[in-house]
Design goal:
16% strand; 350 residues; 12 helices; binds 2'deoxy-thymidine-5'-diphospho-alpha-D-glucose; binds nicotinamide-adenine-dinucleotide; alpha/beta; two-stranded parallel ribbon; globular
Length: 350
């Protein structure tokens, strides 16, 4: 039986990916996750520990731990989702982003080299290209010009991965997807945060004018693309993933208000009236846009979920799973919210 190490599998996208792998293959999955504030074992569903699934609570920055794990499991592939993933938190405190997103990747690359893995898929982001406003969509060969400490840490990791390919011949692959949405996302990101606040009757905080544009992809479409890259992608390749459509943040919030109003029988206009324009995120990119011809032509991938239908079912999922919101009742979340939304980018207290 083939073993694959998937890091960050208790996070949003990693959890969906593990369930897909479990459905599509007979591989043994070893999920390595530190369980930071963003990790929850609930996202994995009812996967039981056994021959086909093992969960290890560990930090990818812990070299000794990774070394004994790789020696024991001898994986054929590694997919690295583990990351500090929230741009706003990276503005408050870049330190953990450099640790996990760069040093952690170096340690995994070293392990992959030593244990001769056949595939190393680094989950990167479209944010490495920087602001797309007034520019052509970025291709995989475009210049990297990240704007935030988060995106800089991801861009640095991409370069490190590519250097391991060239220097050591490590078979790396890099995916760069646009903004994901769907069930099980931590309620600090735009879509779950807005659903949460709308349901609780709280203000809907929009940064700046709200006309920033994003290409939102359903997490299901994204994980299908990742599976194709892992199994059929050309070693050493980078693949952009996205829908090539975009909407403004205000349009996203309006769509969420519509979903919540319809589901709850509430007045749409009342929800819209809770939108508040607040101080903009420092260094905020106005737009992301990636060209996805490469994955469509080489691997035959295409997204299947429209934004409207995807948002509708996402809103419905969050309304039917109110317990997901308890994730945000801890002290860390309250401190974080205060730093961004009350102190408006004042220094964090930790
Ligand atoms: P997430 O924040 O929901 O989950 C990250 C997971 O990584 C958590 O379970 C956390 O506990 C774990 N983790 C963090 N630090 C760790 C460490 N040092 N060791 C082990 N585990 C650790 O993130 P996500 O939204 O699922 O994103 C997953 C990956 O996809 C990230 O690499 C992110 O950069 C990338 N990405 C995300 C999006 C998006 O829209 N969410 C888009 C493009 C790329
Ligand atoms: O583009 C891919 C990236 O998408 C991933 O690499 C990141 O891991 C992921 O977090 C996401 O980054 P964004 O910064 O685009 O996502 P976020 O949900 O934080 O914000 C989406 C947009 O909404 C962005 O323009 C900022 C805005 N926003 C966000 C929040 C949380 C608001 O206006 N108000 C808010 O309260």
């Amino acid at each position: 039986m083939k073993t694959i190490i998937i890091t960050g599998g208790c996070g949003f996208i990693g959890g969906h990916f593990i369930r897909l792998i479990n459905r599509l293959t007979d591989w043994r999955v070893v999920n390595v996750d530190k369980l930071t504030y963003a990790g929850s074992v609930n996202g994995i569903g009812n996967l039981q520990e056994g021959q086909r699934y093992r969960f290890i609570k560990a930090d990818i920055v812990d070299r000794d731990r990774m070394s004994s794990l790789f020696a024991e499991e001898k994986p054929w592939a590694v997919v690295n989702f583990a990351a500090e993933s929230h741009v706003d938190r990276s503005i408050l405190d870049p330190g953990p982003f450099l640790q996990t997103n760069l040093i952690g990747v170096q340690i995994l690359l070293d392990m992959a080299r030593q244990y001769e893995v056949e595939r190393f898929l680094q989950i990167s982001t479209d944010e490495v290209y920087g602001d797309a406003e007034g520019k052509e969509s970025f291709t995989e060969g475009s210049l990297l010009s990240p704007s935030s400490p988060y995106s800089s840490s991801k861009a640095s990791a991409d370069l490190l991965c590519l250097s391991y390919l060239r220097t050591y011949g490590l078979p790396v692959l890099v995916s760069r997807s646009t903004n994901n949405y769907g069930p099980h996302q931590y309620p600090e990101k735009l879509i779950p945060l807005m659903i949460r606040n709308a349901v609780l009757g709280q203000e809907l905080p929009v940064y700046g004018d709200g006309l920033q544009r994003r290409d939102w992809i359903s997490v299901e479409d994204n994980i299908q693309a990742l599976y194709l890259i892992l199994t059929e992608g050309k070693s050493g390749s980078i693949y952009n993933i996205g829908t090539e459509t975009d909407v403004t943040n205000l349009e996203v919030v309006e769509e969420i208000c519509l979903g919540v109003a319809n589901d709850k029988g509430w007045e749409y206009e009342k929800l819209i009236a809770s939108i508040r324009h607040i101080k903009d995120r420092p260094g905020h990119d106005r737009q992301y846009a990636v060209d996805t011809q490469k994955i469509r032509i080489e691997l035959g991938w295409t997204p299947t979920t429209s934004f409207q239908s995807g948002i509708k079912s996402t809103v419905a999922w969050y309304l039917q799973n109110p317990s997901w919101e308890t994730q945000s009742s801890d002290e860390d979340y309250q401190r974080y919210k205060e730093a961004v939304y009350s102190k408006q980018w004042g220094r964090s207290q930790n």
